[in-house]
Amino acid sequence: MELTRRTVLAGAGAGVIGLQAGGAFAQKAEFTYKYANNLPPTHPMNVRAREMASAVRAETRGRVDIQIFPQNQLGSDTEMLALVRSGGIEFFTLSGLILSSVAPAAAITGVGFAFPNYEAVWSALDGELGTYIRAEILAKADLVAMDRIWDNGFRQITSSTKPIRSAEDLGGMKIRVPVSPMWSSMFRALGTVPASINFSEVYAALQAKTVEGQENPLAVIDAAKLYEVQKYCSLTHHMWDGFWFLANRSAWERLPQDLRGIVSKRVNAAATVERIDIAILNAILQKDLANKGMIFNQAAPDSFRGRMRQAGFYAEWKAKFGSQAWATLERYTGKLI
Length: 337
Ligand code: X2X
Known about the structure:
With 337 residues, the protein is α/β, with parallel strands linked by helices. It folds into two domains: 5-152 and 242-284, 3-Layer(aba) Sandwich (D-Maltodextrin-Binding Protein, domain 2); 154-239 and 288-333, D-Maltodextrin-Binding Protein, domain 2, CATH 3.40.190.170. The chain has helices spanning 5-13, 44-59, 77-86, 96-99, 118-125, 128-141, 181-189, 202-207, 218-223, 249-254, 257-291, 301-310, 313-321, 323-333, and strands at 31-36, 64-69, 91-95, 143-145, 150-154, 156-159, 174-177, 193-196, 213-216, 232-235, 240-248, 295-298. (2S)-2-hydroxy-2-methyl-3-oxobutanoic acid is lined by residues 38, 95, 152, 178, 199, 216, 220, 241.
């Protein structure tokens, strides 16, 4: 921004002091909005969100101040979802699968072994599937989802007891899954005994051996230090997961159009960079985690897919989502049934 004598005078005349030395803004922000999430501050989602918040402060000349509350400081995912819906917080990032408790269609991205790679993921989510899901989130949950979904990643299974090579190894395993019917249904179909636990409780549940295992992308396993309480990591890539950046609708609409434009532009730009961070991390972290003591193995996807098909998983979820939504998904993933 260029500071001219005129803009400085205009600001002073209005009783507003603009830039202080060092780029901080002296006046109180017009809009102080809270953004809460479940991940540690070191995870790329929080790193890029902090950059986004500074960019928003700079570009709005201090009018919008987004304060970030990472790592469940404001509650579990279930609690933060209630807060963003009531207006207790203005922004929240959440997996579509957990959001499905209030917008069922949002779980469709988590169908097991649906997306073969990132190219298919981003074509779908930045394309027609994403447009459909965001419309459903607005209609059913009354939340505004920003256009670009943030990456969580392809998920892998960890355990304190044994490596998982095929679906057979999962039989009877007590495994933590996020609080979501899709996750429970999938892991029941795979023969495990799933326990629905919010992320805020996962480390403690693994440490206490309330559950043997859990599943998450490598970037989360690393950032949340799950390697301290898990021994084996099986590269199953069993589902892709992402975080919708959600806004409370009234809080969003309170922002004047120009500020809304700046915030959405900056949030979507941050998501685009975060996606690259995650792709890189998930490609290189295996080595780091192995150095920290985790034992890795590859898992063959066919046995898992076969077990899920046999259990009626795909047919059941196709019926739940409806054949039109399912056809939109399959346009990007190929035939799933
Ligand atoms: O809860 C999880 O496992 C996490 C961190 O991946 C999500 O937010 C879905």
